[in-house]
Every structure is written in structure tokens, then in C-alpha cells.
Specification:
This protein is an alpha+beta fold. The protein has helices at about 25-45, 50-60, and strands at about 1-10, 15-20, 75-85.
């Protein structure tokens, strides 16, 4: 049986928030996490609108394909497929 781990990670930390039984549910949860990360960046940009690093992070997080997103070494959402024993 396949399960999908969904969360966010950066160069030092991994935070698995969900274990999903379907890819469809995993993609929905991934999008929720991506939107949370975008909101955090936008909150910082309200205070520091010309922060180049945060602008780059926002651009990286605009990728909507979990396979293509790359925000390393900063926080990025992930989906990892795993096989389990039934």
C-alpha cells in the first residue's frame, strides 16, 4: 500500500504534517502548506519590501508542481511517496 508524506523542509529540518492515503489528498495538503509559506514571505515583504532573498523565495514558491519546486536551502513543501506493509 502506498502512502504520501506531506510537509515542509529546509536544509536543517523536516516537518511532516500529513500522511495521506491518496495522491489527490496529498496534493491538496501540499498546496495548503505552499500557501502558508507564501503568506509568511508576504508578511516579511510588508515590512521589508525590497528584501532580495524574500523576493527570490516568493518566486521559488510560485512553482505549483511539487516535482519542480526548488527553494533550497529555504523552506519548501514536499510530497514523499512510501510503500507500507499491509
Amino acid at each position: 500500500m502506498k502512502v504520501y508524506l506531506v510537509g515542509s523542509c529546509d536544509c536543517e529540518f523536516t516537518n511532516t504534517k500529513y500522511i495521506c492515503l491518496s495522491k489527490v489528498t496529498a496534493l491538496k495538503r501540499w498546496e495548503e502548506i505552499r500557501q502558508e509559506l507564501i503568506k509568511q514571505v508576504n508578511d516579511i515583504l510588508k515590512k521589508y519590501p525590497d528584501d532580495e532573498m524574500e523576493l527570490r523565495i516568493l518566486k521559488n514558491l510560485s512553482e505549483t508542481d511539487p516535482e519542480k519546486i526548488n527553494n533550497y536551502p529555504h523552506d519548501e513543501p514536499f510530497i514523499r511517496e512510501m510503500e507500507t506493509e499491509e
